[in-house]
Amino acid sequence: MSSVVVDVRGLAPVQRFINRLANPDLRALADSLGAELESQTRRRIAEEKTAPDGSPWAPWSAVHAATRHAGHSLLQGDGDLLDSVTYQVSGTQIRWGSPLVYAGVMREGASQGQFGTTRRGGPIPWGDIPGREFLGLSAENEDDLVGITEDWLQELMP
After folding, report:
1. For residues 128 and 155, what is the distance between their CA atoms, to the nearest angstrom?
2. pLDDT tens across 5-45, in order?
3. Among 33, 37, 143, residue whose Cα is nearest residue 86
4. Do 94 and 30 touch, CB atoms closer than 8 A?
5. Low-confidence ranges of the chain (pLDDT < 70)
6. 39 in helix, strand or coil?
7. Is the torsion defined by CA of 72, 74, 77, 79 positive or negative?
8. Which has the closest alpha carbon to 27: 80, 87, 82, 93?
9. Whole-angstrom Cα distance, residue 78 to residue 70?
10. What is the three-class DSSP state of 129?
């Protein structure tokens, strides 16, 4: 009889790899992706000043621009919105954005008077507030997230 003997004890690293693939730590991946989403959004607000699709944000109205000073820029007065950008991981879902009440108005926009009134009860004088999309993914952002996922997968390899 002709035969070959294989000792399967040498396959233990393969078994560990299969176990890691069968039960991966998705929380670690989600945390890494969430941190990147937060970073991308902060960069968009502080530096890029464009929507995820690359379109520039609408400029301030002349009335509103007159209330700003040199340290202010679109969506960044005293830094509250920028500082508030964060992410949360729940299971395999990532939620990122800002908990600030006015963040939705900055993102979605509002009609004059919808966001409040002056002390005398009239609409806030700067008129309609155009939406300035600061959340979302550009093609480059998506590539960065794919890269993080690929790195995470590489870490699973023996």
Report:
1. 50
2. 777 777 777 788 788 788 888 999 999 999 999 999 999 98
3. 37
4. yes
5. 70-71, 74, 77-78, 113, 115-118, 123-127, 158
6. helix
7. negative
8. 93
9. 11
10. strand
